[in-house]
Design brief:
LeuD; lyase; LeuD_type2/HacB/DmdB; EC 4.2.1.33; globular; two-stranded antiparallel ribbon; 3-isopropylmalate dehydratase activity; Aconitase, domain 4; alpha/beta
Length: 258
């Protein structure tokens, strides 16, 4: 890029009288300013087209170990057992108090110990405990709750503790979103929603059956049936054992054996 300097000269002088009227003086002074001027510039692209090197090309393939979606079908899935009934706004501190969050679920011994503390934070008004003293597993495989189940702080330990204790599903009027998502991500329990307020019509110790395909809960102790909302696409993820297990089984990511 070429540039040349052009000299521009001008002269001016003026003074102000007492009447604030500008009067040009007879004396002139000159100033010179050097202003650069540029010749035209032509820019040429390095190349007309761009193509990535063949060695850097990206392709996506499923792995040979992928599991057909039909294998993860939950339409015939059922749960049968005793239910444990709680009320509204059961928060994660009640499900698993913060003092037990140091337990590491990936360690089998600590996973079992974590389950032994499930729902230990419930107030003393719950005369029947979810897990009997000196036990690590519960006899209640289904938890029935009210509105806003799993509210409070975000902790994956909450659904993990329920699953480690032996619970298979939670049926609630509504959930805190983070608990619902953590349940799906970990694959520990099925978070099912009821269309009616079942927690007021069932009591702890009732024998119940959940049929996922029919989206139905039957209380055999009272003879009543209740409609549940469909678990939808979350069902196969939970059935696989969580989001990462689902991704491996369906070929989205390599299996651990590869």
């Amino acid at each position: 890029m070429a540039a040349s300097l052009t000299r521009i000269s001008y002269s001016s002088a003026f003074t102000f009288s007492a009447s604030k009227t500008a009067v040009f003086s007879s004396s002139l002074f000159a100033s010179s300013i050097k202003v650069p001027t540029f010749s035209s510039l032509t820019v040429k692209p390095l190349c007309s087209t761009f193509a990535p090197h063949a060695a850097h090309a990206i392709s996506f393939t499923t792995h040979a170990t992928s599991t057909p979606a039909s294998v993860l079908d939950t339409s015939t899935k059922t749960f049968h057992g005793l239910c444990y009934v709680v009320g509204d706004n059961i928060d994660t501190d009640q499900i698993i108090p913060a003092e037990y969050l140091t337990l590491v679920p990936s360690n089998p011994a600590e996973y079992e110990k974590l389950g032994s503390y499930a729902l230990i934070g419930l107030p003393s008004s719950y005369a029947t405990r979810f897990i009997e003293p000196n036990e690590t597993k519960t006899k209640y495989s289904i938890v029935i709750g009210g509105a806003n189940f799993g509210c409070g702080s975000s902790r994956e330990h909450a659904p993990v503790a329920l699953g480690a204790a032996g619970a298979k599903a939670v049926v609630a009027e509504s959930y805190a979103r983070i608990f619902f998502r953590n349940s799906v991500a970990t694959g520990e329990v099925y978070p099912l929603e009821s269309e009616a307020r079942i927690c007021e019509e069932c009591k702890t110790g009732d024998v119940v059956t959940i049929e996922l395909g029919e989206s139905r809960l039957t209380n055999h102790s009272t003879g009543k049936e209740y409609k549940l909302k469909s678990i939808g696409d979350a069902g196969p993820v939970i059935e696989a054992g969580g989001i990462f297990a689902y991704a491996r089984k369906t070929g989205m990511i390599p299996s651990l054996s590869n």
